[in-house]
Amino acid sequence: MTGKINVLGGPLALCNCSPTTGFFRDGYCRTDDSDAGRHVVCALVTEEFLAFTKAQGNDLSTPRPEIGFLGLAPGDRWCLCAQRWKEALQAGCAPPVILASCEVTTLDIIPIDVLKQHAVDAH
């Protein structure tokens, strides 16, 4: 792990390794210029969010074994695109976030006070 910073100013914490998440599939919600989606929000996915994102064309609940994806279930931690999380917020179904695992670049799209309102970890 590179010494990335989270939205609270501390070291970026692991989001999840089972299933392994992140743009780089290393368990961390971090990004670089090759990640057009900005997969920087570590979320605790909910059934409501999974239905929302499926309706938007990104089905995260259906297994896709051909690419090694087992599908997500409510309660799984997953690195979401910051813009998709913001869209879910506007639709009233944003899943809770784990602040220590959200990369600081999240703040370019979502204000810290909004993230804190949806946090499951200490803030």
Automatic annotation (TrEMBL):
> Cross-referenced Gene3D superfamilies, in alphabetical order?
Protein of unknown function DUF2237 (3.30.56.110)
Pfam families the UniProt entry points to: DUF2237 (PF09996)
The record ties this protein, via PANTHER family, to: SLR1628 PROTEIN
Q: This chain belongs to which protein, by name?
A: DUF2237 domain-containing protein
